[in-house]
Design goal:
The longest helix is centred in the first third of the chain and has 36 residues. By secondary structure, the protein is α+β, with helices and mostly antiparallel strands. The two termini are 36 Å apart. Strands 1-6-9-10-8-7 form a 6-stranded mixed β-barrel. Strands 20-23-22 form a 3-stranded mixed sheet. Helix 3 packs parallel to helix 5 and helix 4 runs antiparallel to helix 5. The chain is built from 9 helices and 23 strands.
Length: 379
């Protein structure tokens, strides 16, 4: 069984098929149940689960090698002992490392780098702006916000041929949730900007524009809207949808715009090519060559950000730090190119402090770091 199902079980996001796989694995042995409970305990406390994952890998290899009950139980006991030692080691290491870092960079306050949170700026049709953030409410005839989400009046149709448009901008260190007038749900990642109509025209395609950034769409089906399609424009790329779930990543500094389909079916097209996407596949449009390429991907790793997780699978440190820089609103400097190429595997909660995440990366790679003001120097 893949480790990601453990995380999905904890977050109650397993599909029916995945639940069956998990149940079979969970009921298979005492060791599996002990492992799951320990992983859940670590996860809910916001602790690193990378070490407990490694512990299971070690034990499971030995358990698989033998099919003897006594042997199995012996290693199940060894697993519990190993996990306990690993947990104590982690706490001790964490404490020692925090002390070391504070000594090295006394000028940096422990909480000076904030964890990302729900915040956005809403730009209205007349150009005026409204700051949306936790603890602040906003409401008009057409829209309301509790500081964590923005919801437009459901089912309202535009009374003019040119509907008013709003722009929602998510800064670095932010995220936000949006419900459009047709009921479509949109999760917006850090450093993202989306343009959309306050209400949609009757019998016309429902069109929005992802100006830049990353967004996850859960589209209200066309059957509920007179069979009108939902269209997402992103530069020269257009995504035509009937009703489905997908993720678009289109950051300004990236060479690729990646569209990943979770459920349903979408049509991805540009000036020179058109491709149908099926679930579990990704379309990459190259800004340099203006070409589309399709590939099969691990959807969980790509959309985990929406569920409050960083899922890094054989990711380079350069890629990882780019993701972290957006969530924690920091700058990153590498002292040499080789450090950028180091890879890391792990599933981490976005509620962890940057210090905690950097310590975990430091423990699993030959890399160190220093914090100066709002810049992380990797060496």
């Amino acid at each position: 069984m893949e480790f990601k199902l453990i995380i999905k079980k904890i977050n109650n996001t397993l599909t029916k098929e995945e639940q069956e796989v998990f149940d079979a694995w969970y009921n298979e042995s005492v060791a599996h149940r002990l492992y799951y409970n320990k992983a859940k305990e670590h996860y809910l406390k916001g602790l690193d689960i990378l070490h407990i994952k490694k512990a299971w890998n070690e034990v499971s290899l030995k358990v698989t090698a033998k099919n003897n009950t006594n042997f199995y139980l012996k290693y199940a006991a060894a697993f519990v002992f190993f996990v306990t030692l690993g947990f104590l080691w982690f706490l001790n290491t964490e404490t020692n490392q925090v002390k070391t870092v504070v000594k090295q960079v006394k000028e940096v306050e422990p909480n000076s780098i904030k964890i990302g949170t729900d915040k956005a700026t809403l730009t209205l049709a007349d150009g005026s702006q409204v700051v949306l953030e936790k603890g602040a409410t906003y409401q008009t005839e057409k829209v309301s916000s509790n500081g964590e989400r923005l919801v437009y009046n459901s089912g309202e149709k535009s009374k003019t041929n040119i509907p008013a448009e709003n722009v929602l901008t998510i800064p670095r260190g932010g995220q936000f949730f949006l419900v459009l007038a047709d009921g479509t749900k949109v999760w917006l990642n850090s450093e993202t900007q989306l343009k959309y109509p306050v209400s949609f025209l009757k019998n016309e395609p429902r069109k929005v524009t992802l100006i830049y950034g990353e967004a996850y769409f859960e589209v209200s089906p066309s059957t509920a809207h007179d069979e009108t399609h939902f269209i997402v424009q992103s530069e020269q790329q257009q995504i035509d949808v009937l009703g489905t779930e997908f993720n678009i990543k289109a950051y300004k500094e990236d060479d690729i715009i990646a569209t990943t389909l979770v459920e349903g079916k979408v049509l991805v097209k540009n000036e020179s090519d058109t491709q149908n996407l099926t679930p579990g596949h990704q379309a990459k449009w190259s800004r340099k060559t203006n070409s589309l390429k399709l590939s099969k991907v691990n959807v969980y790793d790509i959309v985990s950000w929406k569920n409050g997780l960083f899922s890094f699978k054989n990711q380079s440190l350069a890629t990882i730090m780019k993701v972290l820089s957006r969530w924690y609103d920091i700058d990153v400097v590498f002292t040499n190119e080789n450090i950028k190429k180091l890879t890391f595997n792990g599933v981490l909660r976005k509620t962890l402090s940057l210090h905690q995440i950097l310590h975990i990366i430091k423990n699993t790679n030959e890399v160190n770091y220093e914090i100066k003001n709002n810049t992380i120097i990797m060496y």
